[in-house]
Design brief:
Belongs to the peptidase M24B family. The protein is α+β, with helices and mostly antiparallel strands and 599 residues long. 34% of the residues lie in helices and 20% in strands. The chain starts with a helix and ends in a 5-residue tail after the last helix. The relative contact order is 0.09.
Length: 599
């Protein structure tokens, strides 16, 4: 079945349901960034394979909304005969709907796939046009998606305290203290990584993210009701959870929300869907729209999590270094493709004996494909690595002690002067973030421009954020912290950066039709002591956690300041000292050569 008939089938189903249109987000009932196969409704309907987007289907028009990361990809995967391409944040789903509907029209939405603020704002915008936003009981895509996969049956596993750094009982006690401070009786946890972190459990229901489909309600005394499919539980998990965690079928969650009449119940308006707010309110609860208390606690990594990440970074960096040597040797000879390169990197990671999964679909992109920041190679798009091209590899691993994410660029043959100029400017921005020192309370939005200045000075920029948070054997993208400006995907992060937060550092440059450049390491936010500084002012900086060589042949030393050159040489010395001892023979010799100082 091609995608045009799927669009026609959905329109027929909407007509049968008395709806004039329908909104299709790329998410699940937990507002997850990455979702299980059963929830890939947008991809099934349109063919779009990115990780962020929304579609709107009307009787006489259809539009797909994506941000700057997917400008090229959406045009390659989604037919222009059926769909209009709408850029966000320049335009919004709500604004587009208001401009394209008529009086009396009924636009459907699934209340389990949208936040309460979105529903309220969109309903108001449609009402101004005399139209209505209508919640559906059953998603109409599910009625026409006849071979839709079932949710994953994968079992839960225990994430032991040695890696978590704190027991589940202590974490639930902290949540209880937070509830007391809010004068609340309970909090609904819907984000899958929040539940995994709070209960020290992991799962395999979402590709590359070790979480399980579940809901949790933490009570004021710290006891918890966990809603999860019973066949996911074995004796080890039940024993780990203990009597203070009451177990229920996931299917019982919606009804359970009706049982809080007269109670004050917290729910996160960014992470809990509209259906949860509606069910609590209709059941008589007083709903407190507060941020999930796990979000910040999870972002502040404890010593065990930091130590685990260091260990994961060591083995991951060694595997990546072996791969970079392999690419340098093999790609110029011909025969290496984007898919074969990704497979080789996976093999090197698997040889560590510790890899549990990749942390996302590897971005293995050569030449023009590299200009699409979130390019996903397929059998159809698979391209050979050719002389004169840049090869970009963005990848990561899931290990029980840490989650990694790293990007490097390799020239196949001799790079052009322009490539070296652009790469060096990206490197200068990378160094500016790595060496930033700022007062406690500074947000990622305030330092984002550090990464862009070297590009701005040449009239250039990149169309994505500079950094995201990362989990501890959890999501590769984790909030609330990020480094981004207001006009980039996801918006600015006004969240204060705090000691213990991990972030990526990944400025880039993309020339459509030719190449892409990105340099990514992971950072740990740490306190910094400045001699002579104000003793009453806490200052923060970053410690780089990722170790792998940055391609010397792409660097124009003349563009580097003495301080930048010093940072690069010191970084490479640390790479050699850290990774070198775990490599053997030719791999080690190659690494030492790659990490030699630039004069």
């Amino acid at each position: 079945m091609t995608h045009a008939p799927r669009l026609a089938a959905l329109r027929a189903e909407l007509a049968r349901s008395g709806l004039d249109g329908f909104v299709v987000p790329l998410t699940d009932e937990h507002m997850s960034e990455y979702v299980g196969a059963y929830a890939q409704r947008l991809g099934w309907l349109t063919g779009f394979g990115g990780s962020a987007g929304t579609a709107v289907v009307l009787a006489d028009a259809a539009a797909i909304f994506t941000d700057g990361r997917y400008t090229l990809q959406v045009r390659e995967q989604v037919s222009a005969d059926d769909w209009s391409y709408i850029p966000v944040p320049q335009e919004s789903v709500t604004g587009w709907l208001a401009a394209h509907i008529g009086e009396g029209q009924r636009i459907g939405y699934d209340p389990w796939l949208h936040t309460d603020p979105w529903v309220k704002a969109t309903a108001a915008a449609l009402a101004d046009r005399g139209a209505s936003l209508i919640p559906v009981v059953a998603n109409p895509i599910d009625a026409v998606w006849h071979d839709r996969p079932a949710p994953s049956p994968a079992p839960l596993t225990v994430h032991h305290d040695t890696h978590a750094g704190e027991g589940s009982a202590a974490k639930r006690a902290h949540i209880a203290d937070w509830l007391a401070g809010q004068k609340a009786d309970a909090v609904v946890l819907t984000a899958l990584d929040s539940i995994a972190w709070a209960l020290n459990i992991r799962g395999a229901d979402v590709a590359h993210t070790p979480v399980a489909l579940a809901y949790a309600i933490v009570q004021a005394d710290g006891t918890t009701d966990l809603f999860v499919a019973p066949d996911k539980l074995d004796d080890a998990v039940r024993q780990h959870l203990g009597n203070a965690v009451r177990l229920h079928d996931r299917a019982a969650f919606a009804d359970a929300l009706q049982g809080y009449a007269g109670k004050r119940v917290a729910a996160d308006p960014e992470r809990a869907v509209a259906a949860i707010f509606d069910s609590l309110a209709t059941g008589g609860a007083k709903v407190l729209p507060l941020r999930d208390p796990v979000v910040l606690a999870k972002a502040l990594k404890n010593p065990a999590e930091v130590a685990g990440h260091r260990a994961a970074s060591l083995r991951d960096g060694a595997a990546l270094s072996r791969f970079l040597r392999w690419v340098e040797a093999e790609a110029p000879r011909g025969g290496v493709t984007e898919l074969s390169a990704a497979a080789q990197l996976l093999a090197f990671r698997q040889e560590t004996g510790c890899l549990l999964d990749t942390s996302f679909d590897t971005i293995s992109a050569t030449g023009a494909h590299g200009a699409s920041p979130h390019y996903h190679v397929t059998e159809e798009s698979n391209a050979p690595l050719r002389l004169g091209e840049l090869f970009l590899i963005d990848s990561g691993g899931q290990y029980v002690d840490g989650t990694t994410d790293v990007t490097r660029v390799v020239p196949v043959g001799a790079p052009t002067a322009e490539m070296r100029d652009r790469f060096t400017r990206v490197l200068k921005g990378h160094i500016a973030i790595a060496t930033a020192i700022f007062p406690d309370g500074t947000s990622g939005a305030q330092i984002d421009g550090f990464a862009r200045r070297p590009l701005w000075e040449a009239g250039l920029d990149f169309g994505h954020g500079t950094g995201h948070g990362i989990g501890s054997y959890l999501s590769v993208h984790e909030g609330p912290q990020r480094i981004a400006a207001p006009n980039y995907p996801g918006g600015a992060s006004l969240e204060p950066l705090r000691a213990g937060m991990m972030l990526s550092n990944e400025p880039g440059y993309y020339k459509a039709g030719e190449y892409g450049i990105r340099i990514e390491n992971l950072l740990l936010t740490v306190p910094v002591t400045i001699p002579g500084g104000d003793p009453d002012r806490t200052m923060l900086g970053f410690e780089t956690l990722t170790f792998a060589p940055i391609e010397r042949d792409l660097i124009d030393p003349a563009l580097l300041t003495p301080a930048e050159r010093s940072w690069l040489n010191a970084y490479h010395a640390r790479v050699a000292a850290t990774i070198g001892p775990v490599l053997d023979g030719d791999d080690r010799a190659w690494l030492i050569s790659k990490c030699s100082a630039i004069g």
